[in-house]
Write the structure tokens for this entry.
Amino acid sequence: MDYRVSAQDRAAFKRCRRQWDFGAPTRQNLQAVDPLPPDLNRAVRDALAVYYYPGMWDWQSHIVLPLVRKAFMRTMAAAPPSDQRTADVDLGTELLEHYIAWAPSLDDFCPLMIETDVESLVPDIRETDRALSASDARRVLYTDRVELLAIDADEELWIVTHLVVPEWHDIETLLLDEAAVAACWTWEHEYLGTSIAGTIHNEILLPPPESLGPVPTDTRTGRPGRGGYSQNEPSGGGRLIAHLPRPEPEEPEPASENRVTQETAGVIRRTRIRRSRAEIETSRRHVGVEVLEMLDPELTFFPAPSPNHCPQCSFVAPCLTMTEGGDPALDLASRFRPGPTTPTYEPRLGASGGGGRYVPIPPPTPPT
């Protein structure tokens, strides 16, 4: 079996090594016995996976939108009943209705695939053109689940991420979103022959502002309903769009004055960032550096206390016990159980290829 490092594992490792050691499938692989609290962010993103499901993109809104709302409620219902869940359902329902009203004024793409699992060999930074291997000679793979792959009117591909945020991120934070750039590299490795133009960061503000102004009556593309480009149009959509492999060697790209474009409408801010070949290559190397460190048998698992993640961490109690010099074994045995060996996701409508319309077409064979 291959040694897999998911994007979730990488984020945990960068955030707090002790949390990563407790929870990662390749480490102690523990998960809490108690039911998880409601995850409003996850529920909104699950609803948007249905909203942008390619197989229903050309359907009329009155058919699709009830399914979007149902997806949100299904995720929220997975949490145990509580006052917090009731409040989050009300807040999330309001936020989703605002999104449905304002998104058509921004959407200028066609969704191709949603919730798609991708993986790539991790490079060995110690040797050129060599993939990293674990100590037992297993292949080391970096895995991710891409929320949305979209194509624009110029037939360029974009990785789209949905972010439910309490305040807008600054441009520098989005430019340095290495996880999104790593998704570009991983996608290109999984679907050989494709070239990702960049990332689209779809921020949704929570809670919604008290005053949003009038809802736009026109869509960005002039297409009725949810806007965007149709799946049946030959440009900016369609089921079969050819993408040839990037030329080798790749030439440096000239600086673009339009590298970053940003628009705000209602509760949504859409930031489009064109990513260079150098950025994607740098992200690939960063993954190689970090995974090599994860494989180090002498690695120290120190904590990284932060008010941003400690209050939500399931391992706060055993972490405090260890910090005080105690043995957390009893707490771990009573409050945690072994988790799945690979990252698990709730099935989404059209996930992992079932919701895709993108079929890469190989380049023509040169005449002999």
The longest strand covers residues 109-121. Strands lie at 3-6, 30-32, 109-121, 140-152, 157-165, 196-205, 260-265, 268-274, 336-338. Residues 3-211+258-338 form a domain with the Lambda Exonuclease; Chain A fold (CATH 3.90.320). The chain has one domain: 3-211+258-338.
